[in-house]
Amino acid sequence: ATPIGLLVGTGRGAQLGILIRGPQALEDTRKLDTIVLDKTGTVTTGVMTHLGTAAVDGVDPAQALALAGAVEHHSEHPIAQAIAKAAAAQGELAQVTGFDSDPGGGVLGFIEGRKVVVGRASWLAAQGTELDQQAMDMLAAAEAEGATAILVSVDGAFQAVISVADKIKDSSAAAISELQQRGLRVVLLTGDNKSVASKVAAQVGIKPEDVFAGVFPADKAKAITSLQEAGRVVAMVGDGVNDAPALAQADLGIAMGSGTDVAIEAADITLMGNDLHQVTQAIDLSAKTLSTIK
Ligand code: ADP
Ligand code: MG
């Protein structure tokens, strides 16, 4: 039988915009010692903007952006939305056939018979694009600027690097500090590059050794497992399709209300306010509810 107090706790959570799947989740919240945060859409707004496009000699950057944007138009990823929007601002997007995507990797599609691949280096390589020294140098230059750098290839030939970036939510730094004041270890886990991840971590007070960057979706769940094997009791907070396995693996999965359905379904708790302060509220609510029961 469920103690009535736990049910009251879940009701109080709902009033705060914290949707708790079952009374057990509230009980598990009390045992946490580690909070793992996804970056994009969790610590940051997840609304990306296009900063610029750099193309190889002989390729028009606007044309590379147009092709990439037409393909990205078929993806829900925040990066995709920024690229599609910037491309649409230049002119009508081309028709795409055979769209495919790898969450945490990128997208591909065919435009007038040409195969356009957009995403991280490993995704382009997996699709048969040869990335030469020039490509790697252009990627490194964009990342050194603190941007998330997205590569574009056409029929296997590298063409351009598109830089995008988003902003840290106004509330993130204070919320992370609240969690740390409660003795919790806060970890940043992201598929994005090390340079962006370190910059964000520094701005919100996460220690450099607690930044796990460049992590593939399947490895996000493994990162949770390794923390658990080291004896940590872990909450994962995320919003993306790529976060779902990690949300399910964590002792407690917490999804942003603005997140994808897949993330929300995998989570034990959903934060309707999309705010990390609500993680502290859930922890405090759990402590209070359980002390009332005893
Ligand atoms: P995060 O952990 O920050 O939410 P993701 O796992 O969603 O990041 O993505 C990791 C990386 O995969 C991105 O930084 C990007 O390089 C690449 N990627 C994923 N989806 C796309 C896309 N639709 N277009 C371009 N690149 C993508
Ligand atoms: Mg995310």
Automatic annotation (TrEMBL):
| Compartments, as annotated in UniProt | Cell membrane
Q: Which family does it belong to?
A: Belongs to the cation transport ATPase (P-type) (TC 3.A.3) family. Type IB subfamily.
Its name, as the record gives it, is Cation-transporting P-type ATPase B
Q: What organism does this protein naturally occur in? A: Glutamicibacter uratoxydans
- Measured against the full-length protein, the chain present covers 414 to 707 of 757
